[in-house]
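Lecture notes, part 5. Sequence design as translation. It can be helpful to think of inverse folding as translation between two languages: the language of shapes and the language of residues. The source text, in structure tokens, appears below.
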């Protein structure tokens, strides 16, 4: 079986890639072999683009347009869609969405969905592995679409070389709360739904907020306006992405981010790996339940 999976990966067969990602995600014994088989130079060179923002801003529609544009340039595109929905309803919704993406029959568009809820954890490790496998099978860019709410999603965004924050007019007050945290990680600001009332005002607001942010490059104050549903503004957006990418490569920012992301992935894997043995100890009755739970945890780890 291992030969078959490695062959599928080598052949860049989407089903083989999906299988490989699943095995690594499940921490299967084959995981090491799969990851070691990847072409490191492809992984190093691939561009990882994070697209984040509140639900309904148009991230998926935008991603779809971005894919089309990169495909027309002959690039092979990977997508990791991080879905915050429950695993119970998630499967069907994710399936629909992938079909809606209009690239389902294209062998050079590889889409991977990941649910955030109902997992044991290790989302960052799983997403990191998926990025590697997609990059190693020739995808660049790799787009990570995520709703920027929870901490694990914020961690995922750190796997990206470049992050674009998508906002849209008329989304209500909750985006105000989101803006602050998301703005810190955003390299590019996108006001989508530029065809709707309030887009200009939102763009001006975003520009001034971005300019206030300390220590950021001036470029970050630039806001791209798009109408994803009509494919408008995508060329300008891609040009802006390219500019940021080039500047990050030159300044060393890209390297610094990759190093941070690497450390985060190691931490996430280590936690994943240590968890089963701790769970086992607890289940085997390793606790006397005297004193507080924190103290018990300290004792358990001392025995580790
Ligand atoms: N008017 C308008 N609607 C849009 C635009 N982009 C996306 N939409 C619509 O907004 C809704 C949410 O889009 P979706 O891509 O699913 O948002 P996501 O939750 O951020 O991924 C869908 O009904 C889209 O058709 C746009 O530029 N203008
Ligand atoms: Mg979406």
């Amino acid at each position: 079986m291992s030969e078959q999976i490695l062959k599928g990966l080598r052949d860049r067969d989407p089903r083989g890639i999906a299988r490989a990602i699943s095995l690594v995600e499940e921490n299967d014994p084959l995981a090491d072999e799969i990851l070691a088989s990847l072409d490191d130079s492809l992984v190093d060179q691939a561009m990882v683009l994070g697209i984040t923002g509140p639900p309904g801003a148009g991230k998926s529609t935008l991603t779809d347009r971005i894919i089309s544009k990169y495909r027309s340039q002959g690039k092979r595109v990977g997508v990791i869609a991080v879905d915050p929905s429950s695993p119970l309803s998630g499967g069907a919704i994710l399936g629909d969405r992938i079909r809606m993406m209009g690239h389902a029959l294209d062998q050079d568009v590889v889409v991977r969905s990941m649910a955030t809820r109902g997992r044991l954890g290790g989302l960052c490790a799983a997403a990191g592995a998926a990025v590697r496998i997609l990059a190693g099978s020739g995808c660049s860019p790799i787009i990570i679409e995520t709703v920027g709410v929870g901490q694990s999603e914020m961690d995922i965004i750190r796997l990206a070389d470049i992050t674009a924050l998508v906002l849209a007019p008329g989304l209500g007050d909750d985006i105000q709360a989101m803006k602050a945290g998301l703005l810190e990680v955003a390299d590019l600001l996108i006001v989508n739904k530029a065809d709707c009332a309030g887009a200009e005002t939102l763009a001006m607001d975003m520009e001034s907020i971005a300019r206030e942010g300390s220590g950021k490059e001036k470029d970050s104050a630039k806001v791209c306006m798009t109408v994803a549903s009509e494919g408008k503004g995508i060329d300008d957006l891609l040009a802006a992405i390219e500019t940021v990418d080039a500047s990050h490569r030159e300044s060393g920012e890209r390297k610094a981010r990759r190093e941070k992301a690497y450390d985060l992935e190691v931490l996430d894997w280590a936690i994943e790996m240590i968890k089963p043995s701790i769970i086992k100890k607890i289940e085997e009755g390793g606790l006397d339940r005297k004193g507080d739970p924190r103290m018990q945890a300290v004792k358990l780890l001392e025995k580790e």
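The translated text above is only one of many valid answers, since several sequences can fold into similar shapes. The longest helix spans residues 253-283.
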